[in-house]
Amino acid sequence: MSEYELLYIISPRVPADDVQNAIERVSAQIVSQGGEVLSVDNWGRRRLAYPIRQFFEGTYVLTTMEMPPAGAVGLEKSLILAEEVIRHMLISGIIPRTGGRPRDEREQYSDAPSAPMALAMGADDDAPTASEAAAEPVAAEPEAAEPEAVESAATEPVEADAAAAEPATAEPATAE
């Protein structure tokens, strides 16, 4: 038997109370195709990246399972026909979820370089670190004064030269 991951989106027309029943129906289809459900992870209702069948949101569900390859073909056919599933993706193999901590436990990174990088870049040991700099209050900038009205010396109208104002007349060229 092969391992698979199935990610599917349940239609928003399915009421919130019936979402669990829809998940159980998909799990029952997996078992009827000779598979075994390893885990089901309901991600909840989310906004879609683009409209699918004129829907803008749906309930995402990730299921990991073991099943024979022939059963996977039958499962995909049944998911295509299921009205409550608007999109699905069946992947052969289970993607490992190791090597990382949950997002809320991760350290907050700043734009400042790490200590080894800062030393390599020639940073001063006396310079405040990013967390110290963030803790220091920022001095308020003085309010900008309104620009004073500057009077121009060229406010008087300039009289146009009378010769420049007259249009130039061109004499017609004569053929000799």
Describe this structure in words.
The structure is a single chain. With 176 residues, this protein is α+β, with helices and mostly antiparallel strands. It has a domain at 2-92: 2-Layer Sandwich (Alpha-Beta Plaits). The chain contains five helices and four strands; from the N terminus they run βαββαβααα. A four-stranded antiparallel sheet has the order 2-3-1-4, covered by helices on one side. The longest helix is centred in the N-terminal third of the chain and has 14 residues, at 19-32. It is elongated and about 105 Å long.
How do the strands of the widest beta sheet line up side by side?
A: 2-3-1-4
Order of helices and strands: EHEEHEHHH
User: What top-tier CATH class of the domain at 2-92 fits best?
Assistant: Alpha Beta
What integer value in Å does the Rg equal?
Answer: 36 Å
Quote the distance from N terminus to C terminus. 105 Å
Give the CATH H-level superfamily of the domain at 2-92.
Ribosomal protein S6/Translation elongation factor EF1B
Shape: elongated
Which CATH architecture of the domain at 2-92 is right?
A: 2-Layer Sandwich
Number of H/I helices? 5
Q: Mean pLDDT, as a whole number?
A: 74
Oligomeric composition of the shown chains: single chain
